[in-house]
Amino acid sequence: MRVLGMISGTSHDGIDVALVDFTLTGDTLRGAVAHTASTPYPAELRKRLAAALPPAATSLAEVCELDTLIGQEFAAAAAASVEAAGPVDLVVSHGQTVYHWVSGGEALGTLQIGQPAWIAERTGVPVLSDVRIRDITAGGHGAPLVSYLDGLLLAGLGGTPAALNLGGIANMTVLRGPSDLYAYDIGPANALIDAVVAARGLHPAGYDEDGRIAASGTVDQRLLAVLLEDPYYRLAPPKSTGKEHFHGDYPARAVASAGVEVSSADLVATLTELTVRTVARDVLAAGVDTLVASGGGCRNPVLMDGLRAALPGVRVLPSDEFGAPADDKEAIAFALIGWCTAHGLPGSAPAGTGARAPRVLGSLTPGAGPLSLPTPLAAPPKALTLSTP
């Protein structure tokens, strides 16, 4: 079964896609990653999206228009992938998260936009979307859903391995035994850095390319101490967060609270160190011996060198070594969720999200013809192997 996974993450910079050709042999699922791509949002659309995110006020009219415009961008990206790599059986669209409702440590709702009907109409292929909410209705956080993929990928490592994703938000899956895992959102990875870079016009693409801005600055220890006092870090897993908490105004409020004056470079350096400190603290507390890293933060040498220096006894590897390219792992994870749903299988790890039990995820939009699904499977795969060309 050929499944196209699609996601725009909390950095809201564009759409990542991964086409995975799945084959089940016994209880091992094999996934050949046949195609990957990343399509930036048009500058004006990204600007509108950023302006609508918390803590800004917005209107239902703007949400409706963004839902359509983002859906059309996802449809174009899906069509381009099909044209480049051949037909697919299912598209899985995570869409764009615009709000993740957490109150009192409990996830109560989540909203991803990017109307899937545009994808179905453009490609003629059924589309699975709205994949997080079913886990939330079962008492989970709907995140990090990538923990299901992580559990399968890390299963053969032994020791105490963990998978770290450095997207807009940093999340981690820790495997304590063959079927014993937990996962949660640690805190910001690129989200606050990107917000400062974009707001201050430090880079036209809106991120710290190769960590150059952070490398040119100095960490402000007073500001770092204020940032580390955020109550979120003291919450116990399972927990989840996003830009409704670590939003674009967050850095300026922290600077004001610290009573300091910092240059742009020093602010970016301090926010980068915040990610290093919070991630390293949790990795060490979990007794992790192998850390498999993915996400856009892997391209930031200041961040990665900082983590390696803070974790001298931990082997830090890119997820590429496990067949999941660091930039494409989340898109691959949603392709896997789609395969599971199509076969009537849960695509979540309750120990990773905090749900009462696993759930079959998502809502299906039919393609051009009748909706036809494979014969349901009685049991999920026990192992997953990924390969790239």
From TrEMBL:
Gene3D superfamilies cross-referenced by the UniProt entry: 3.30.420.40
Catalytic activity annotation: 1,6-anhydro-N-acetyl-beta-muramate + ATP + H2O = N-acetyl-D-muramate 6-phosphate + ADP + H(+)
UniProt: ATP binding residues: 9-16
Key word Repeat present: no
Leading EC class: transferase
Alphabetized SUPFAM superfamilies for the sequence: Actin-like ATPase domain (SSF53067)
Keywords, alphabetical: ATP-binding, Carbohydrate metabolism, Kinase, Nucleotide-binding, Transferase
Single Gene Ontology MF annotation: kinase activity
Keyword Repeat attached: no
Transmembrane segments: none
Pathway(s) this gene product operates in, as recorded in its UniProt entry: Amino-sugar metabolism; 1,6-anhydro-N-acetylmuramate degradation; Cell wall biogenesis; peptidoglycan recycling
Record InterPro entries: Anhydro_N_Ac-Mur_kinase, ATPase_NBD
Enzyme Commission number(s): 2.7.1.170
Family under the similarity heading: Belongs to the anhydro-N-acetylmuramic acid kinase family.
PANTHER family on file: ANHYDRO-N-ACETYLMURAMIC ACID KINASE
Known role: Catalyzes the specific phosphorylation of 1,6-anhydro-N-acetylmuramic acid (anhMurNAc) with the simultaneous cleavage of the 1,6-anhydro ring, generating MurNAc-6-P. Is required for the utilization of anhMurNAc either imported from the medium or derived from its own cell wall murein, and thus plays a role in cell wall recycling.
Name this polypeptide is given: Anhydro-N-acetylmuramic acid kinase
Organism: Streptomyces millisiae
Lineage, uppermost ranks: Bacteria, Bacillati, Actinomycetota, Actinomycetes, Kitasatosporales
Protein's gene: anmK
